[in-house]
Design a protein that fits this description.
By secondary structure, the chain is mainly α. The chain contains ten helices and six strands. It has helices spanning 8-21, 45-54, 79-91, 102-117, 133-136, 139-144, 163-169, 180-186, 212-241, 246-249, and strands spanning 2-4, 28-30, 64-66, 126-129, 148-150, 174-177. The strands form two sheets. A three-stranded parallel β-sheet has the order 1-2-3, covered by helices on one side. A three-stranded mixed β-sheet has the order 4-6-5. The protein is elongated, with a radius of gyration of 29 Å. The relative contact order is 0.10.
Length: 250
């Protein structure tokens, strides 16, 4: 999985799912953050991971980290900001991935994922949270890639390829999550902090849908019954028309 510091709540939801399902993740994080993400210098996403691990709530964390930002090289960040990100990696003992270009960083990530794969043949799923350039390849790609599960991403052509496209070419399904508010609206999740959702309730867990197969069978039976009634009705009308009244003959 590839995450950024911009969506800590979504990252946490994914980590919770991994914990419940007892999966073995390989995680690389783009550590810099958008305005409302994990943007405190002493409370980056790596620090949040460490707090959760120290509390016994997590047994895993990021394997590698990059600076994020433009070209995934921290371009656009101040020198002080880059120093803070490096400091966060050092105190949380997470190695830095940093090449000379975005393409270098994509390749370095793929090599890191391959090393973390171990004895398994391939990854079962690649999950991308956010719009980290090393994962999506470019900002236009982040908007063009359908959100949700992608099983045919390798069939599409992109000007720049990120980890998502390279994983797809290795026959790894890709789950892309970017605009979390849209996901919340689609599944009728509360956007208000005043209302605490109940675990296990809501459209994200279950929904009532009509069984199309049963409905189609019932519709076919109903149509056949209507046709049969019409046929028999016409037959009866012809039969009645051919009956001769003996009184009329007399």
């Amino acid at each position: 999985m590839g995450v950024t510091g911009s969506n800590p709540a979504v990252n946490l939801a994914l980590y919770a799912a991994i914990t419940v399902l007892e999966l073995d993740p390989a995680i690389i994080v783009s550590l810099s953050s958008a305005s409302y993400g994990a943007n405190k210098e002493e409370l980056t996403w790596l620090d949040m991971e460490s707090i959760l691990k120290d509390s016994g709530l997590l047994s895993f964390g990021a394997n590698y980290a990059s600076l994020g930002g433009s070209e995934d090289l921290g371009i656009g960040l101040t020198d002080n900001g880059i120093a803070m990100l490096r400091s966060a990696m050092a105190r949380n003992d997470v190695p830095l991935i940093m090449g000379r270009s975005l393409e270098d960083n994509v390749d370095l990530r793929m090599k890191a994922y391959q090393e973390l794969l171990g004895d398994a043949n391939r990854y079962r799923l690649f999950v991308n949270i956010g719009g980290g350039l090393a994962n999506v390849g470019s900002e236009p790609n982040a908007r063009l890639i359908p959100e949700g599960l992608n099983t045919k991403l390798a069939e599409r052509n992109f000007e720049k390829e990120g980890v998502m496209m390279k994983m797809a070419k290795l026959n790894v399904p890709v789950l892309h999550v970017r605009r979390i508010l849209r996901w919340a609206r689609n599944y009728n999740l509360s956007l208000s902090l005043d209302q605490k959702p109940m675990p296990g309730e809501g459209a994200v867990f279950s929904s009532t849908i009509h069984n199309v197969t049963v409905a189609s069978i019932c519709l076919a039976i109903l149509l056949m019954a209507i046709i049969a009634v019409i046929i028999f009705d016409r037959h009866d009308r012809r039969f009645m028309a051919n009956i001769v009244d003996t009184d009329d003959e007399l």
